[in-house]
Amino acid sequence: MNNEFENPPVRLSKRMAELGLCSRREADEYIAAGCVRVNGAPAVLGQKVTPADRIELARAARERQDRRVTIILHKPLGYVSGQAEDGYKPARVLIRPENRWRDDPSPLRFEPGQLKNLVPAGRLDINSTGLLTLTQDGRIARRIIGEDSTVEKEYLVRVAGRLSDQGLKLLNHGLSLDGEPLLPARVRWANGEQLQFILHQGKKRQIRRMCELVGLRVLALKRVRVGGVRLGALPVGQWRYLGEDEYF
Q: Which of 8, 54, 152, 155 is the most buried (most CB within 10 A)?
């Protein structure tokens, strides 16, 4: 079969994101700035490539990527993940020097410039707590919340109500939201009043809505892990830098 049909050309920015070089938005910025070459020639916006094409990102752009920070915050109740809404403050206002965890092992020093383009990779609603990732790095954001993301998210959920064996089976697989079947999850009792949820997707208020479908009411919801990154002993309202040995 002709390789042209097996691997049809795609936009250069999409291919760069697939290769983990940067996000699509960042790719367009680098292309416009002349920092990308394809098969040795300067790239242009809108250019299409195949897997056989050689893509190079300029050293200056790679160094810029490496300077971008990722922050782990223990989000408290009453803060929204993204933009301020309905009088609630965004969680990023907590990223201040005085709120940095004193046991953060990272050698990085806080600089105001680290707040520029620092955005949440995923969301936690106002009434949820736990691990919230904020990053300047589009590669990390894509890995956590991209359409093809397979990164696990783990939650501890305190519930009220009676859960039957069939209800527990449905929480693991068999429920639908917004007219679409949910991906299989891993749900089990962590103790007498808390369920452990491990999900591979993140629909809006997914866990709360799943619980409602099986007759449970969520009393408290806390995210404790995203991929290989754990909340651990990070205190509520405090933050730390992503460690060099941590990966989502």
A: 155
Instruction: For 162-179, write each residue's pLDDT tens digit.
Output: 999 999 999 999 999 999
H helices of the chain, in order, are: 3-6, 12-18, 24-32, 59-66, 138-145, 165-172, 206-213
Beta strand segments in the chain, E: 10-11, 36-38, 41-42, 48-49, 55-57, 70-75, 119-120, 129-135, 153-160, 176-177, 180-181, 186-189, 194-199, 217-226, 229-230, 239-241
Asked if 125 is an active-site residue, the reply is yes
Of 110, 148, 117, 150, the residue nearest 135 (C-alpha):
117
Provide the token pair at 61: 């752009």
* Same domain? 105 vs 119: yes
Residue 4: pLDDT above 60?
Answer: no
Q: Which of 125, 137, 165, 178 is catalytic?
A: 125
In a domain, 9, yes or no: yes
Q: What is the CATH number of the domain that holds 107?
A: 3.30.70.580
Distance (Å, rounded) from C-alpha 120 to C-alpha 117?
10
